[in-house]
Amino acid sequence: MYIFDPKSDFHRHPQGGIRSMSTITFRIFSKRNRPIPELLIEKREDYNKHLYKQVKMQWISLQKNYDLYQVQLLIEEYGHYYYSFIFGEEKSESYELLIYHENYSTPDWVKGGTIYHIFVDRFYRTKPLSKEGVLIRNWGETPHYLPNEKGEILNNDFFGGNLEGIKEKLPYIASLGVNIIYLSPIFEAYSNHKYDTGDYHKIDPMFGNEEILKELCEEAKKYGIYIILDGVFSHTGDNSIYFNKYGSYDSLGAYQSKDSPYYEWYTFNEWRDDYVCWWGIKTLPEVNENNESYVEFITGEKGVIQHWQKIGVMGWRLDVADELLDEFIKKLRSSIKKENKDTFIIGEVWEDASNKYAYGKLKGYLLGKQLDSVTNYPLRNGIIEYLKNKDCTLLYDTMSKIMETYPPPTVNCLMNILGTHDTERILTVLGSKSQPISKSEMAESRLTEEEIKEGIKLLKIATLLQFTLPGIPCIYYGDEVGLEGWIDPFNRRCYPWGRENKEILKHYLYLAKLRKEMKVLAEGKYRCLIHDKEIFVFERYNDKEKLIVAVNLLPRTITLKFKEKLKEWESNQKKNEFKLEKESYLVLSS
């Protein structure tokens, strides 16, 4: 019998992912008169483990019929590890241990900030739109969702949002405390979402041009805001310079000829109509990331990455990171960081990024050679589960896993999301009592007044958690003013200029002020104080200040008592005891 808590700094120090070449201390309590424990370290590569080290532990003291043992060791090689304890013939369970490269760091300017995610066509337009062959819509109409006579969803309806519109709205975006604007894809493409790239070196004319993007980067910088782009590098559009299936471009595409300079970028089972495409979608032919020509085109000295960063782009969100080869991501990182190590890299990852398997490979996202940050979907799931079902277990477990395994440099810049262009709108999720089944029902679906009231109450709590837990919150445009919508395309409605929900916006402005004034939210430590189903209380702290966030989803008021005197944030009165109203929250500071 033994006592060991992998989440305890006493039992394993330091916590979190650990920098290689650092000394790690392990302590375990073992029942008196049991065999002296040994620490077993195994390294994992793909699905196999092999012995790295096995070390006998040293006796430290006797406490209440338990022997306390300790061992200190240094792990030189970065990678995925597991550790366990051996007591003669018995063995404990295995615990995850992520060792990251000793030179790994993430940009300081990101930490403590806020991201604003814009789906460009739907944010703000500065001029009327006209283009042949597409549907031009009135601002605010329901996005087109019906398939054509061939059963295809073309995503070819446009509302006219553009880069000039974003530039014009920079004062508003800055008021939200934003220091990063993340743009959905802006390169020339057929669709409204632009994930079907047509030309990596050209801004889509509907959005503007290279000069306008440069102006946007320069103007945003005056507000302390940097622009990051969506890098879609696992596939292109079939209607592109490189594939050119429809002959739209003055180029020799891979679909047209085996002599095309782009032919080997793609994989044809049988040229020309049987080719490998992303998730079986024929309009999105997959790219072979092992192809030297393609890798050089994206990451080389005159490649796509360098081209856009030279005009002021300060980072990339890598689309479908699971489907990018490890070596390709490493080359992307080298190119992105070449001129400026403070350039920011986020990977789209939907699961736990510390030990993710994809396509039969153990991914090395957080080992220090690939990503700075990931899209924190597990946190989103935990927050929604807590608020909808009044049980904080998943939220507590998710945060414990992140703090136990993720490298601290990653934790401090995790992209904390509640909604994206791939998920339902957060107000809709939290407020709705039922979910429509068909897209036709979703198109007409709106929250009732009662549902909106409930949704706003829970949204305030959800965003408070999003803004105060470790990482950086990402606002999906329009969430801050009450946009509703189920799945794509209803989560991509136009920003409702002039019809904003002022109550929700006021709350976001409150959160912006909180993040600006409480510096502890940038890199402060995290500790959960209470996790009891409906009640979740945690603190962020450092040597200078402390912030405590308490949420009560019980149908009654509770009392919180603290040993030290605290005050409600923005108040001056310090005390030890606080009333926490039913289905509400408190923000306390030292």
Give structural notes.
The mean pLDDT is 97. The strands form 8 sheets. This protein has an 8-stranded parallel sheet with strand order 25-22-21-18-15-12-27-26. Strands 3, 5, 6, 9, 10 and 11 form a 6-stranded mixed sheet that branches. The chain has a 6-stranded antiparallel sheet with strand order 28-29-30-33-31-32. The two termini are 40 Å apart. Among the domains are: 2-100, Immunoglobulin-like; 238-287, no CATH class; 523-589, Golgi alpha-mannosidase II (Immunoglobulin-like, Sandwich), CATH 2.60.40. It is of the alpha/beta class. Strand 29 (535-541) and strand 30 (546-552) form a beta hairpin. The protein has 14 helices and 33 strands. Helix 7 (377-389) runs antiparallel to helix 8.
Short description:
The protein is an alpha/beta fold and 590 residues long. It is built from 14 helices and 33 strands.
Describe this protein with a few key phrases.
single chain, alpha/beta, Immunoglobulin-like, six-stranded mixed β-sheet, 33 strands
